[in-house]
Amino acid sequence: MSIKVTGTAEAWDMVPGVVDEPRDGRTYSEVVLPFVARSDNFVLQGTKFSIGGFELLHEGTDVITGDQVVLDHKAFALNDQPFQLRINLSGFVLELAIRAGFVGMEGEGADQRLLFAITDISPREEQALRRVIRAYLNGQIANADDVMRAMDDPTGTGKAPAKPAEVVVRSNWKPRMIAGFASVLCALILTVSLISIYDKYMIIESSFASVTAPKVDILSPGMGRLELAVGQAGDTVSRDDPLFALRAAKIEADLDLSRARLAFLEASRDRRGLIINPRDVSALDEPQIKAVQSLGPDAASIELLEDEISLEIGRMKALELRLAALSQFAPCDCVVSWVQEDGAWLIEGDPLMTLAKTGPDHLRVEALIPLKDAKNFTNGQSAFVRLAGTQRLIPATIETILLDGQTRPRIGFPTWLRKDHSLGSVTFVVQEPLPPSTIGVPADVFVTDRLPLMEKFKHVAGY
Amino acid sequence: MRLLIVMFWMFAGAAWGLTYEERLALDLSDYKVTDSTAGYFDVDARRAYLAGVRSEMMRVEVSHLKMGRSCRDMLQLPLLDHRAVIPGFYEDQENWREVARPYLAFEEAVHELAAAQLVATDRYHADCLVDLLHKWAVAEAFEDFHYTNLRRQAWYQIESPIFAAAMALSTVRPFVTDRHRDLDVVEAWLKRLARLHASYPGGRGTCCNNHFYRRALYGAMVGVLTQDNQLFQFGVSAIYSALAGAEPDGALPLEMERGELAAHYQNYALMYLVWIAQIAERQGYDLFGLNIDGKSLHTLVSFNMAILEDLRVLNRHVSTLDQKLTYQQDDQYFAWFELYLSRFPRQDMEDVIAIRRPLYNRSAGGHTTLIYFTPD
Q1: Does a structural domain hold residue A165?
Q2: Looking at this predicted complex, what is its ipTM?
Q3: What mean pLDDT do residues B215-228 have?
Q4: A72 and A18 in one domain?
Q5: Which residues in chain A are closer than 8 Å to B68, comparing Cβ atoms?
């Protein structure tokens, strides 16, 4: 159990499957984030949760009647029951289907809270919950990227976040190996030979690498209610497929108003035009003739009306542009890696959707390296990568080196690592196609060193 | 003959550059379109460079553009096929901003498609641009605009969509040569539009100032695309006019007349003049090297850089040094520096844009850092 429980030991024993977990810093840590829990009968506001349980306010809503209800232990069977937890995170809502058992109450009066222990949770959902907690302990609200990726962040424990391990430079050659050569000529020949071999064996190993894909973050182009044309994260879309539309009542109303104004202006022009051309008056009935006569025959005003009409059409076009911008189509054959909830109310600039290009040509292995080591890398340098869970080394070459990894619009890497300004980003083109399922999979990267000749000489010579 | 005419108005003491009539009398018949596919840069060479570029900033730019845009987004832009009436930029800026938005959106769209095509491995964006322009050509977009001596904003507004469309088309045309029927429709529209628009002489200022240079820019680009020598020569005439009228220090008198906006408009005028020179250069004519009475485009550029360094250089030309400098906050005003620097290195110019890259101008030149900057 990972939340504080003030119930009795008997209460614990009464919940099948609940065991006392060691209270290490990771499982005990409580997270205070907005969430609601829905059981078969009630919806309750949550106050905090951990990997093993959660705490709810005792006032909630009856899902059948919609009435506000105040609950105590009698409302919950002693056996565990299904809950749906909906946790509001950064730009999305995480839904977890779990089973939990009531274990006690805490607080008094209006502040009373109901305590539950999680008794059944799928490994995948437990993993997601654990990542939310890890991100929280690192001082961040998890986003979809954090929850979905295949590699965990180091857990914060109130101390500074763990730094990635230094990139290690290893050499099988020692400087003293060249010390035995007497003549300068021999030393030179040997040094050249050493440099050649050094090229093959000098490796740079990075523990912080994974498979990434180019992504595009789509922000809300305006204010409105979201109508999604795509399903959920993981769905694929083809180029030109509709992605979403925002319903913006204000723009639609402005457009209707503009159309009405245009119709009025055109009618006014037409009526005045009839006065100018008396032969057309014969086509009018008596009330119409009176109406247009009241406007007066004014050729100049007709010209002004023409200008007003053109201006109004211009305004209408501007509104149509605003409206058109509120619906967008897929720019690529992509995978939806994250998407807002359908029906969400968005304002301009809100995160709306993230698309990733997952074709074999687009996936890369990306490694974060300390900036001080960036000088050891050059484009085209050869390397090997080994994906987690495999033993096979796959040839690769360095494609790009960026000193600021944040500028790289790619998905599959922990967001918090990208924010570390002491790390640069190196991407590798792998010599064989990577399937989309590998996005986010950690990798080991071994890079053949390509130091400048003099630098190599210094390394080999030991100074 | 051409030189004789130039000398004529030089000695006549043209204070602002050539008058409209003097321009018409100018014999520029030696300037002929020699290569209608030359565009404003070497597309193949630039694609090859970008494919292997190592610069971090450039690779990020390429990566962003490679994500592309859906053509359906572009095709749903509202068609501007109505009679255009637009509130004055200085008289009613709020309404201008609203009504002008679709014009600016069109310019952005065509250059975005051209830039995406420049880095793409397929021809999707080139086809999309042709689809878009064909749709607008069939609808005779921009061809009906309000023009009176008192209200010319619609006329001004249509200058930039024409050269934006022509420059973008010049970039993607090599990818879609098989669509000659559609291209014929688009090019006929651009030519018709350019000739119609250029047939209005403008007023005392706009006949011959930055607005003229903007019209000359579409003249040069559409002239090349459609092998219309007269339009091309109309474009070239702007360089003659500007150099003839320039002060010895490079100040453009019609732009200096703008008082507190003199600094702004000296730069603004060059934003278009350098592109005309570049387009002509691609046809084999060295307008950057053209020198009239000791003044060349470099003289005008140097004066612009001097203004950026110290406003007091304007002392001789304007009554106030209390200049409106908001243009300096908008990087688009400096996108043309990339073109100039790619041919004529200047440290002071490089210093201005080094921290502003990647540069982009919505209508004149598009993604200029992508097209001209060579950091490797």
Answers
A1: no
A2: 0.89
A3: 98
A4: yes
A5: 331-332
Residues A106 and A72 in one domain: yes
* Interchain proximity B83–A324, CB inside 8 Å: no
SS3 B88: coil
Residue A28's pLDDT band (boundaries 50, 70, 90)? low
Give me the total of CB pairs closer than 8 Å, taking one residue from chain A and one from chain B: 85
How many structural domains compose chain A?
A: 4
* CATH code of A407's domain: 2.40.30.170
pTM tops 0.80, yes or no: no
Residues on chain A touching B83 (C-beta within 8 angstroms): 306, 310, 313
B80 touches A: beta carbon within 8 Å: yes
pLDDT of residue A282: 55
Chain B environment of A214 (Cβ under 8 Å): 63, 66-67
Same domain flag for A234 and A283: no
Longest distance between any two alpha carbons in chain A, whole Å? 122
Residues A114 and A128 in one domain: yes
Are residues A133 and A50 part of one domain? yes
Same domain, A34 and A104: yes
Question: Can you list the domains of chain B with their CATH numbers?
Answer: 2-372 (1.50.10.100)
Q: Which of A322, A345, A378 is the last residue of a domain?
A: A322
Mean pLDDT for A296-313 is: 78
The reply to whether A344 and A285 lie within a common domain is no
> How close, in Å, is residue A25 to chain B by CA atoms?
40
Asked if residue A117 and residue A203 are part of one domain, the reply reads: no
